[in-house]
C-alpha cells in the first residue's frame, strides 16, 4: 500500500466513524449493520470491507449523491460551544464552552490532550479562544477577564487579565505573538502584553458592545465590530484610532480579514447578511451575501477564494467573485445553531462549534462545484408532505404555500409545480395506485385532485369538511378516496364523479389524523387523536368491528398490512403497536423509539415494518417477530415524513427530515443483500430546502422560531403493492 493510499484510507476511516459515531457508540455491530450500509461507495473503507458482508442490508445510489464531509465529532462539553481555534501546526484544536471549560483536542485522534481547563469562577462561561502564534499558549475570554494557559503544563501562564467591566466577547493574539487583544460588551477593546499580562491601552469609541475583533494579516492594525453598527480600525502598536469608523449599516456579530489582507468581511445575526469591504479604499464591495438563516460566524478560506458562513445549524460556502453558493449543499450534522467556524492553517479542514455542545471537523479538501439552487418557493416554503408514484419514478411534495411539486425521483429535479393552489398549506399528498392522480389534503378544509402528467387541478376542490383536512388515501382499486379532518369526520369520495359518497360522513371521536384502506378492498380504517382506530366496510357506513383503543395519547399514523389481517399504529406514546383486526388484541408493542413515532408502514410483502420518529431514527422491524432489524438512518434531526412504493424488484422510499430551519427530502430504496441479490434498497439525497419549522399540529414552535413557516409535524408512510 502506497503512502497516498494509506493516507486516503485513514481519511476515509475517520469520515466513516464520524458519520455513524452515535450508532456505533450505542452498539458496535452497527459498524456493519448500518454504518457500512450507508458509507460512501467510493471510500476505501467500503470497498475493502463491504464484500465480506454479503448477508447484510446493502445500498446503492442513483441520481445526485453527496457524500458527507464530516471527519470527526468531538464530544465532551455540556453546553454551547461558543468558540473554536486551530493551533498554528494544525495538530491541536481548542474549544470554549458555556459549561465553563476550555478543552484542547488532538486533531489526529480526537482525544483531549489534558483535563479540561477551567477558571476559578464556578459560574464562568468561555466566550472566545485563540492560540499563540508559537502554539505554546492558549487564551480565553471568560466572563470579564482574559485567561492565559500553557499548553505544555495545562496550567495558568499568567494571572487573569482584568480590566473589562463586562464579559469578554472576543480575544486574539497579534501576528508576532507579543500582544493580546480583547473586545468586550463594556464597549471597549484592550491591548495587553502577552508576556507580562500588563494592560497597554484601552481603545474607546464604540457606543455599544464589541462583538468581534481581528488583527490584519500584516499585524499593523486591529479591526473591531460592534452592535453600534460600526467597524473601527486601530493601530496595533499604540491603539490609536485610524480614520473614521465604517458604517456597517447593521450590527455585526463577527468579522475577519482575507489572508492577503485586502478584504474585510463581517456578518450580521440580525439581517442574516455578510458584507465585504476593500481595505485599500475602506469602501464596501458589491459582495453582499444573504442566506436567510441566523448567521453567527464567518471566515475566509485560507486561499481567500471563499467565504464560509454558519446558517442556523448548517455551514455554507460562497464564491466571492460570483456571490454564488458552492456544492455540496451546506454541511449538515449539527443539531443546533453553529456558533463558531475556523479553518485549519493548511485549509484541508474546518472546525465548527455549536449550541449542541459538540465540535465537528469537516474535510474541505478537494474541489467544490456550484450547487443547483432550489426554487425560491422551496427556500421559503419547505416541503410539508411527500408521496411516491406507483412506479417509483416520481416524488410528490406538498408545500405550505398551498401548491404541490412533482420531482423526478432519479435526478432530484423538479418536473412540475401546480399552478392553482390551495388557500392554505398542504398537509398530505398521495398518488393513486394507477399513477394517474394526486390527491392533496389542506388546512383550507378542502381536498384537491391533480393530474400527474400536467400538474393541473382536476375539477373543483372537494368540499365537505368544516376544518383542516389532515389525511387522504386512495382505495386499492382507486375507486374511492378517503379524507380525515379536525372536524372529527371521514369523508368518502367517488373518484370518477368527484362527489361525496351517499354514505357518511363517518364519525370518529377526535381529530382524524390517518386513514388506510385494506389491500383486499374490504376494510377502511381511520385513526383519531383520542387513540382510537375505527373500522368500516368499504362502500358502506357499516362498522366492521368495535373501535380499537390503540393508546391513550394519540395516533399519528396507521396502515393495514398487505394480508389485511393486522394494523400497525404509531403514536405520541413513542411506541409502534401492531393489532390483530379480527381478534382485537395487541400483537406487538415495539418501544425502541425515544420520542413521538410520526409514521409507520408495512413493506409490500408484509415482512417488514418501518417506523420514523422525532428521535431522528428510521427503524426496520421484523413484522412476524417484532424484532428490530436495523436503525437504517441516523438523521441530524427528527424524521418528518416517509412514504414509499413498490416497483419492479425494488422499494422506493422518500424521506422528509426536519431540523430547525431546514427540510431534507431524500430518495431511498432498501434491500436485504441476499445470495440471490433480491433488491430492496437504494439511497440518493435529492433536494435540500431551508426555512424555519413550525409545529402546526400543536400550534407551537419547535425550538427557536425566527421564521415561523409551517411544516407538518406528523409523518405519513404508505407502502402499497402494485
Instruction: Name the CATH superfamily assignment of the domain at 377-701.
Output: YVTN repeat-like/Quinoprotein amine dehydrogenase
Number of helices: 5
| Low-confidence spans | 61-67, 369-383, 633-641, 644-652, 654-722
- Helix and strand content put the structural class at mainly beta
Binned strand content: over 45%
Quick one: biggest sheet?
Answer: 5 strands, antiparallel
Name the CATH class of the domain at 377-701: Mainly Beta
Shape: elongated
Q: Round the Cα radius of gyration to an integer and report it.
A: 28 Å
Rounded mean pLDDT is 79
Would you count the extended β strands for me?
62
- CATH fold naming of the domain at 377-701: Methylamine Dehydrogenase, Chain H
Annotated CATH architecture of the domain at 377-701:
7 Propeller
- The helical percent reads under 10%
N- to C-terminal distance: 50 Å
Care to give the gist of this entry?
By secondary structure, the protein is mainly β.
Polypeptide structure, described:
The two termini are 50 Å apart. Helix content is 6%, strand content 47%. The strands form 16 sheets. Strands 1, 57, 58, 59 and 60 form a 5-stranded antiparallel beta sheet that branches. Strands 40, 41, 42, 43 and 44 form a 5-stranded antiparallel beta sheet that branches. Among the domains are: 3-45; 248-363, Methylamine Dehydrogenase, Chain H; 377-701, Methylamine Dehydrogenase, Chain H, CATH 2.130.10.10. The protein is built from 5 helices and 62 strands. A hairpin with a 5-residue loop joins β7 (126-131) and β8. With 722 residues, the chain is mainly beta.
Amino acid at each position: 500500500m502506497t503512502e497516498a493510499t494509506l493516507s486516503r484510507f485513514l481519511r476515509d476511516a475517520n469520515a466513516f466513524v464520524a458519520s455513524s459515531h452515535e450508532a456505533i457508540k450505542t452498539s458496535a455491530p452497527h459498524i456493519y449493520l448500518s454504518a457500512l450500509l450507508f458509507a460512501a461507495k467510493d471510500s476505501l473503507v467500503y470497498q475493502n470491507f463491504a464484500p465480506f458482508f454479503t448477508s447484510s442490508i446493502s445500498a446503492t445510489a442513483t441520481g445526485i449523491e453527496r457524500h458527507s464531509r464530516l471527519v470527526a465529532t468531538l464530544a465532551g462539553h455540556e453546553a454551547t460551544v461558543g468558540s473554536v481555534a486551530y493551533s498554528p501546526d494544525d495538530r491541536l484544536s481548542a474549544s470554549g464552552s458555556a459549561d465553563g471549560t476550555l478543552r484542547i483536542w488532538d486533531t489526529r485522534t480526537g482525544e483531549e490532550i489534558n483535563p479540561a481547563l477551567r477558571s476559578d469562577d464556578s459560574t464562568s462561561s468561555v466566550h472566545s479562544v485563540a492560540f499563540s502564534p508559537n502554539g505554546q499558549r492558549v487564551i480565553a475570554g471568560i466572563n470579564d477577564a482574559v485567561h492565559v494557559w500553557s499548553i505544555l503544563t495545562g496550567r495558568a501562564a499568567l494571572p487573569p487579565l482584568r480590566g473589562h467591566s463586562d464579559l469578554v466577547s472576543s480575544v486574539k493574539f497579534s501576528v508576532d505573538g507579543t500582544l493580546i487583544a480583547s473586545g468586550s460588551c463594556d464597549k471597549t477593546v484592550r491591548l495587553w502584553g502577552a508576556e507580562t499580562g500588563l494592560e497597554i491601552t484601552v481603545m474607546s469609541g464604540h457606543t455599544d458592545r464589541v462583538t468581534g475583533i481581528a488583527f490584519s494579516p500584516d499585524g499593523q492594525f486591529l479591526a473591531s465590530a460592534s452592535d453600534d453598527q460600526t467597524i473601527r480600525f486601530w493601530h496595533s502598536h499604540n491603539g490609536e484610532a485610524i480614520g473614521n469608523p465604517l458604517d456597517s449599516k447593521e450590527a455585526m456579530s463577527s468579522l475577519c480579514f482575507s489572508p492577503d489582507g485586502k478584504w474585510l468581511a463581517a456578518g450580521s445575526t440580525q439581517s442574516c447578511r455578510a458584507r465585504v469591504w476593500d481595505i485599500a479604499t475602506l469602501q464596501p464591495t458589491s459582495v453582499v451575501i444573504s442566506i436567510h438563516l441566523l448567521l453567527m460566524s464567518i471566515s475566509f478560506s485560507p486561499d481567500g477564494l471563499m467565504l464560509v458562513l454558519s446558517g442556523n445549524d448548517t455551514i455554507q460556502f460562497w464564491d466571492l467573485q460570483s456571490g454564488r453558493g458552492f456544492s455540496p449543499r451546506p454541511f449538515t450534522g449539527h443539531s443546533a445553531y453553529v456558533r463558531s467556524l475556523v479553518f485549519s492553517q493548511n485549509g484541508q479542514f474546518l472546525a465548527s462549534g455549536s449550541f449542541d455542545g459538540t465540535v465537528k471537523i469537516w474535510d474541505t479538501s478537494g474541489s467544490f462545484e456550484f450547487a443547483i439552487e432550489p426554487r425560491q418557493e422551496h427556500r421559503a416554503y419547505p416541503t410539508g408532505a411527500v408521496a411516491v408514484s406507483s412506479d417509483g419514478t416520481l416524488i410528490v411534495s406538498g408545500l405550505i404555500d398551498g401548491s404541490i411539486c412533482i420531482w423526478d425521483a432519479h435526478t432530484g429535479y423538479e418536473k412540475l409545480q401546480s399552478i392553482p393552489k390551495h388557500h392554505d398549506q398542504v398537509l398530505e399528498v398521495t398518488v393513486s395506485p394507477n399513477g394517474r392522480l394526486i390527491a392533496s389534503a389542506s388546512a383550507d378544509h378542502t381536498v384537491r385532485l391533480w393530474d400527474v402528467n400536467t400538474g393541473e387541478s382536476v375539477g373543483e376542490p372537494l368540499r365537505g369538511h368544516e376544518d383542516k383536512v389532515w389525511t387522504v388515501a386512495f382505495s386499492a382499486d382507486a375507486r374511492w378516496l378517503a379524507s380525515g379532518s379536525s372536524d372529527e369526520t371521514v369523508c368518502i369520495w367517488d373518484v370518477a364523479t368527484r362527489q361525496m359518497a351517499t354514505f357518511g360522513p363517518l364519525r370518529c371521536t377526535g381529530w382524524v389524523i390517518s386513514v388506510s384502506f385494506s389491500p383486499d378492498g374490504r376494510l377502511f380504517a381511520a385513526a383519531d387523536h383520542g387513540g382510537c382506530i375505527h373500522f368500516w366496510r368499504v362502500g358502506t357506513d357499516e362498522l366492521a368491528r368495535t373501535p380499537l383503543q390503540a393508546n391513550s395519547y394519540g395516533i399519528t399514523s396507521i396502515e393495514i398490512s398487505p394480508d389485511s389481517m393486522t394494523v400497525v399504529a404509531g403514536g405520541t406514546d413513542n411506541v409502534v403497536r401492531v393489532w390483530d383486526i379480527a381478534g382485537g388484541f395487541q400483537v406487538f408493542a415495539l418501544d425502541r423509539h425515544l420520542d413521538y413515532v410520526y409514521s409507520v408502514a408495512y413493506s409490500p410483502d408484509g415482512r417488514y415494518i418501518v417506523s420514523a420518529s422525532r428521535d431522528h431514527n428510521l427503524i426496520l422491524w421484523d413484522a412476524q417477530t417484532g424484532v428490530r432489524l436495523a436503525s437504517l438512518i441516523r438523521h441530524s434531526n427528527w424524521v418528518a415524513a416517509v412514504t414509499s412504493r413498490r416497483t419492479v424488484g425494488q422499494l422506493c422510499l422518500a424521506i422528509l427530515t426536519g431540523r430547525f430551519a431546514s427540510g431534507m427530502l431524500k430518495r431511498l430504496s432498501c434491500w436485504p443483500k441476499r445470495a440471490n441479490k433480491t433488491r430492496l434498497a437504494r439511497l440518493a439525497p435529492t433536494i435540500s430546502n431551508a426555512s424555519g419549522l413550525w409545529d402546526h399540529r400543536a400550534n407551537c414552535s419547535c425550538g427557536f422560531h425566527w421564521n415561523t413557516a409551517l411544516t407538518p409535524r406528523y409523518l405519513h408512510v404508505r407502502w402499497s403493492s402494485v
